């Protein structure tokens, strides 16, 4: 019989702890920056980079092949962005990079150095949530919830850029996010309600 | 993904020097490359990141001679929205940039990256298949296999289709491209970027190892020039074209004084169709004329077992593009 984890340990931290125990150290020391004359080379092993996330600088260890999504989820415990297809084909991993929506699974973490990254975690502070999130709840704009973080980020970008978006504009801005449950109509209601000042 | 070294150049010369090293690939946004590296279709020892060169290699500008200079690292979103392209002559370029993939992809994907994409053929993109184009087998598996998205025109021993949807409008507008290789800059017609004989052993482009595309140039369009780009897809968004057509016409006194017509997604290269374009010249726009041009555009087609729909749909797309350009 397996012993259940201590109630003080979250499901995620428990899984993470057991995973780490089973992983052998394969990292090779980062190559030191080359002489100033040539280009700077990183990797192939692990090294530390600084990412600007939700207004704060965060240090994270990555390999050159680490995607932004993996750096966020595995390196920084920002697990809001979801890893669904991992091929840029669903939008579950949508975050904002310099204010524009991107699929973080197809972006190397190294490519995001120096950019301002906004994740869904920026939309809540304890129990206080952004009006858009409140309106997702109010409009019941989710079913299984897997696409929701990406959907919220695309909705946020839509509102930031367009103010009061039309239906056609919302359709365009949400066209990179797949929802198998078919919540698009309610997502658009949530965007419109936010644009009208609801949810505050 | 196999581990690799990631090179951050400070300028184009450093990027070019690094690109000339063995087992090295160049990366813009990497939307296609990261995908292929995840699938282990490409396992370079070294990746040169060109994004730090955005300052010199991105952006759209009108030059003194009225041409439009498009930096290789310009994103599709920038291209779609740029003020210099709000011109009926360049409509095809905006339309094409605006319907590529998804907003998330367009926010990162670069113009050069779009044109230099690897084909989307599902045989070559899966290591499990012993395909000729992938260098893993003796024949093209799509010729006799599942080929509904494959070529109907201009194919030789490999029925892949060229996936770029920016290439057809750029070709129709007479674009040129500039590359740098070993310190030498070269400017050529865009058609030269694609292999003259798109055989299985040839890559999708003619770049030499270490050669970097730095810019595209769209020449000044004559008065009365109009362009349009249309494509058919299975989904309204988030999909590759099944057929595509870019046209540029010069309208004078109600007649078509000059025309260019390029098909996309139906052959291993983007395909200029000069006979179809020539049939339009000197004529007034009409449904019958567009039908004739559409038939000529697909003349000599050699469809496969599952893709003869591309002829019917493709001709409708040609008519639609002509209709939009002359409306």
Instruction: Give the helices and strands of chain B as they follow along the chain.
Output: EHEHEHEEHHHHHEEEEEEEHHH
Question: CATH superfamily of the domain at 227-326 in chain B, called what?
Answer: CO dehydrogenase flavoprotein, C-terminal domain
Mean pLDDT of chain B: 96
Please give the radius of gyration of chain B in angstroms: 19 Å
Shape of chain A: elongated
The first-level CATH class of the domain at 124-195 in chain A is given as Mainly Alpha
Unreliable residue runs of chain A: 1-7, 17-29
Plain-language structure description:
The complex is a heterodimer of chains A (200) and B (327). By secondary structure, chain A is α+β, with helices and mostly antiparallel strands. Chain A has a domain of 72 residues: [2Fe-2S]-binding domain (DNA polymerase, domain 1). Helices cover 30% and strands 16% of the residues of chain A. Chain A has 6 helices and 8 strands. In chain A, helix 4 runs parallel beside helix 6. The radius of gyration of chain A is 19 Å and the shape is elongated. Chain A starts with 10 loop residues before the first helix and ends in a 5-residue tail after the last helix. The relative contact order of chain A is 0.12. The N terminus of chain A is likely disordered. With 327 residues, chain B is of the alpha+beta class. Among the domains of chain B are: 47 residues, 2-Layer Sandwich (Uridine Diphospho-n-acetylenolpyruvylglucosamine Reductase, domain 2), CATH 3.30.43.10; 100 residues, 2-Layer Sandwich (Enolase-like, domain 1). Chain B is 26% helix and 21% strand. In chain B, the strands form 3 sheets. A 5-stranded antiparallel sheet of chain B has the order 4-5-8-6-7. The N and C termini of chain B lie far apart (49 Å). The chains are: A alpha+beta (200), B alpha+beta (327).
């Amino acid at each position: 019989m397996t012993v259940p984890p201590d109630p003080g340990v979250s499901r995620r931290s428990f899984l993470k702890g057991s995973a780490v125990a089973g992983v052998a150290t394969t990292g090779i020391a980062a190559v030191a920056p080359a002489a100033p004359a040539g280009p700077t080379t990183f990797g192939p092993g692990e090294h530390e980079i600084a990412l600007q996330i939700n207004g704060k600088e965060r240090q994270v260890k990555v390999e050159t092949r680490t995607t932004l999504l993996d750096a966020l989820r595995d390196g920084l415990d920002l697990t809001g962005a979801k890893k669904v297809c991992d091929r840029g084909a669903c939008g579950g991993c949508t975050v904002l990079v310099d204010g524009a929506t991107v699929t973080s699974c197809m972006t190397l973490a190294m490519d995001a150095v120096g950019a301002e990254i906004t994740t869904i975690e920026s939309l809540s502070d304890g129990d206080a949530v952004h009006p858009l999130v409140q309106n997702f709840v109010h409009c019941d704009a989710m079913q299984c919830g897997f696409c929701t973080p990406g959907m919220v980020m695309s909705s946020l970008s839509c509102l930031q850029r367009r103010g009061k978006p039309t239906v056609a504009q919302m359709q365009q801005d949400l066209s990179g996010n797949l929802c198998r449950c078919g919540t698009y109509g309610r997502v658009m209601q949530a965007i419109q309600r936010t644009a009208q000042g609801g949810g505050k | 993904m196999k581990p690799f070294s990631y090179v951050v150049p400070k300028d184009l010369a450093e990027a070019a020097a690094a690109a000339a090293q063995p087992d090295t690939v160049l990366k813009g946004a990497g939307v296609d490359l990261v995908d292929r590296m995840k699938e282990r279709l490409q396992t370079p020892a070294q990746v040169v990141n060109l994004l730090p060169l955005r300052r010199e290699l991105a952006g759209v500008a009108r030059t003194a001679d009225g041409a439009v200079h498009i930096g290789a690292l310009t994103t599709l979103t920038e291209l779609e929205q740029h003020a210099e392209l709000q011109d009926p002559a360049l409509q095809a370029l905006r339309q094409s940039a605006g319907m590529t993939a998804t907003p998330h992809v367009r926010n990162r994907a670069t113009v050069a990256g779009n044109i230099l994409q690897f084909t989307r053929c599902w045989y070559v993109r899966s290591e499990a298949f012993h395909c000729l184009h992938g260098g893993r087998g003796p024949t093209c598996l799509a010729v006799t296999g599942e080929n509904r998205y494959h070529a109907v025109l201009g194919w030789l021993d490999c029925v892949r289709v060229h996936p770029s949807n920016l290439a057809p409008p750029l070709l129709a507008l007479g674009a040129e491209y500039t590359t740098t290789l070993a310190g030498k800059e070269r400017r050529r017609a865009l058609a030269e970027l694609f292999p003259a004989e798109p055989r299985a052993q040839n890559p999708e482009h003619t770049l030499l190892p270490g050669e970097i595309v730095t810019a595209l140039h769209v020449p000044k369009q004559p008065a009365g020039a109009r362009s349009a780009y249309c494509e058919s897809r299975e989904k309204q968004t988030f999909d590759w074209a099944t057929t595509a057509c870019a046209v540029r016409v010069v309208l004078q006194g109600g007649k078509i004084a000059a025309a260019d017509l390029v098909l996309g997604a139906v052959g291993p290269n983007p395909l200029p169709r000069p006979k179809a374009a020539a049939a339009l010249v000197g004529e007034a726009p009409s449904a019958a004329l567009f039908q004739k041009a559409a038939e000529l555009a697909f003349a000599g087609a050699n469809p496969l077992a599952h893709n003869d729909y591309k002829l019917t749909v493709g001709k409708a797309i040609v008519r639609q593009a002509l209709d939009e350009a002359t409306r």
